Every structure is written in structure tokens, then in C-alpha cells.
């Protein structure tokens, strides 16, 4: 019996050894001079940043409560951005961050820009300048956003002998001697001043807008035809519509027509309780029908943002229906535009199919950061964005249902609106930076075959508001939306290669489009299909991360 037991143990050991593979785990660390604000004013708060390779794609934080609200999701976005700039998937790394004890606190994401630079430096073997510090929020697209308490932070840095401080655009304080303050708008600028490396970006001329022009013209023609047949006149400025049309600004013109339809149906809804109820019921039914139709359309690199836009509009109807005071007019106006978006999504359903399973982790990251940005804006600045608390709940609900693209779309809008609200003190200074950032990210996404339909739509609307001269805040919000959308969708498309490819269908007036094959569920892979991947690396990394955090917290 004992021999059998011994043989069994030997056999188990042999099988275990056969399945084990040897990996070299690289560990690199650097300490940064994060700037914080405490009860007695500004403070320099050291943060030790450690990078493990290979990793599990996560950022772990120790030192709470010195790490303020939202520090974890901000560190995760920092890892995400640094990896993208390095040209390596973020899942190749694990980041460990330990905040040294202090009476000061890093307020939410205010150190995330600095952490991004530190991670990039570790990934590329670069040295950080010891005489330079930084404060500023990192956005997923690489923009650096404003923070609070900059004057106190710069004063604390000067008192510590730091020679240069990088601060967000429009936040350079005056009257502080003995220190150089540089305003920056992008993470590339921060990397240059902190490491000396200049990162080259793709030129905006790399963006091909031919598909966008065709799609936006189709959408414009559909909604303008509906308006002329149903409403006729009185709710839009026809001269403005025709001018925008002649300039090729079809999306901006279509958006103005949509607003006219909203005003028209709001009047209709207010005419009687019966009309209100009919519009409400019909809007909900159209949204449900649209959702069912959309579920049958494959998601490819060519139609992904059309699918996202369709889901966003469907859930705007649902969100309106679930509000405390439903706006039946708005709901109906939104619902009657759904068909044209879904028709375009069906026509563009060709090319490499997107692996939606891989969206789960990225969608979670955007969702957590949306919560962080919204909370930071509300708790630090006392600013509340309309009904965005409900929008956050909707994004969470969509994620739980496995609708990762729809969840990501809602999260992106929350992040963009929060960021533009933070930049409201200097929107004119951010306008050009945000627009150039959008074009840069679109060029990167276009290199992977992305059509940039939504980003170009938002860019066009931003240009429209920018030309008005007195609505810089609105233009800024659309530019940031264009930039973050092109970043997120570009990441998805760039990782879509190697899968199923759908040929382009012929949609003629005489033939009806064939019904595409049903899309597999976002989490459709079975455990058996995923079982070929080794569990050793994630297990070892999680244990290492846990041990490191326990060790750091006990020191």
C-alpha cells in the first residue's frame, strides 16, 4: 500500500513537472515624487512603482488611505496607456504601487499622469529626472487633465528642492519662486520632460474619411427625408442645414435636424395624455425591435462604432423610460432614427470579426474609471453632471448583462463629459490640444483598418461648435469624445486580427440583404476551449502581487 502511495506521488510529481514551464520574471522599480495636499498644505508624497514582466494586466495598490479615492482604477488606466505607448499589450505586465505613509493624500487620480510616465520608463529602461515632479490626471487617450490644489503642490515641491514641476494646461500658479513650472497637455509631453525621450506620433493625414462621408451622408438623407415628410418646417433653420450640407458637414446637419424632431415631438407629447402615452409605448417598442435586429448583425472592424452608436441610442430610450420624469418626445425622436443607424451597421458588417470576449476586461477598466472620474468631479469640485449617476448605473447594468460594447460606450461618454467639465476653467487652451489628440488617435486606429465613423462624427460636431466662437466648452467635449472613442475602438480593432473574416455583401435596391449569422455571446468560450492556456503564470503573479502588497502594508 505504501509502495502504491509512493508511486502515485512520484507519478504526480512527474506530471506536474511536465506541465511546468520555466519563466523569467523581470522586476523593476522606481520612486516618484508625487504631489499631494494634506491638512497642513502641500506635500511631496513618494510612491514606489514596481513593474513585473510577464504579468496579469493588473495594477495593485498598497498604502491606503494615503492612496485616495479612485487611485486603483487610475493606476489601471496608467498601466493601459503606458503599455500602448510602448507597443506591448498591457496584459504582459503587473504593476505594484506602494504609497509611503503621510498625513497628506493623493486625491484620486491626480498622480496618475506621473505614474503613467514611471511605468513607461520602466517598460523601456529609461531614467526619470530626480529634480522634476508632476501632477495631473491621465485620460485613456493620453490627454493630461486638471487637478486641484496645484498652487499648494508646487509650493511643497519648491520647499523640497525640486527644480521643475509639470502641471496641466491652464493651472500654472504665479508668485512661487525658485521653481520652474511647465504646462503640459499630453502624456508624450510629460515623458519628454521627465525622461528626455521624444515619442513620435502618426500624422493626422493618415486618417481616411471616405467611409465616414458616405455613412454620414446616408444618415443625413434619411433623417432629412423623414423631417420633410413628417414635420415639414418650423423646427430647424433650413438655411443652416443647407449651408452645412454644402460644406459636407452632414453629421452636424443631421444632429441639428434630430434636435428639431425632439422639439416637435415634445410639443406633440404635451398636447394630451393619450398622445404622450402612445409616443412612450411606440418608442419603447421600436427600441426593443432595434435591439433584436442589432443582435443579429456580426460586429466587425468596419461596423463596430455603428453598432456602438446604435446600442447607445437604444439605451438612451430605455434610460429615458426609466427616469423619474420620462420625456416621451425625446424618446420617440431617438427611436425613429434607430433604423437608419442599424441599416448602416448591417451594410458595413464585413471584414475581420471582432473578438467580443476580449472586450470584457477593457470594458471593466473603462467602467471603473468612469466611476472614478465622476466621483472625483463631484467630491473634489462639487460638480454634478445632470443625470450621470444614473448613466453610471446603466453602464454597470450593461456590463453585468455581458453587453460590453454598450457598457464601454456609456463609460466613454461619462469620462469625456467629466474631463471636459474639469477643463472648463481653460477650455480655449485645451481645444487645439484635444483636437490634435483626437486626430492622432484616429490615425493610429486607421492603421489597423478602423473606419473612425464615430470619432469623425464627434470631431465634425466639435468643429461646428468651435466655429460658433462662444461655445468652446461644447466643442471641447466633442473633441475629447472623438479622441477617447478612437482610442478604445482602435484598441479593439487592432486586436481583431486572425479571426473570421466576412466578405462584403452586395446591397442593391433590388435585392434584400441576407440575414447575417447570429453573433456568439460575449463570454461564449467554454472552459474546455480556454483550458489550453497555462494557469501557472497568472497564479504565480497573483501570489507575488499579494505577497508584495502584504509586505508593503506591514512596513
UniProtKB/TrEMBL annotation:
Alphabetically ordered keywords of this record: Membrane, Transmembrane, Transmembrane helix
Every Lon proteolytic domain range: 32-169
Any one GO cellular component localisation term in the record: membrane
Chief localization: membrane
Coiled coil stretches, renumbered: none
Keyword Repeat applies: no
One term of GO molecular function: ATP-dependent peptidase activity
GO terms of biological process kind: protein catabolic process; proteolysis
Domain of life: Archaea
Annotated signal peptide: none
InterPro entries referenced in this protein's UniProt entry, alphabetically: Lon_proteolytic, Lon_Prtase, Ribosomal_Su5_D2-typ_SF, Ribsml_uS5_D2-typ_fold_subgr
Pfam hit, one: Lon_C
Protein name stated in the entry: Peptidase S16
Species, as recorded: Pyrobaculum aerophilum
Sequence intervals crossing the membrane: 535-552
Record keyword Transmembrane present: yes
Mode of membrane association: Multi-pass membrane protein
Subcellular location(s) per record: Membrane
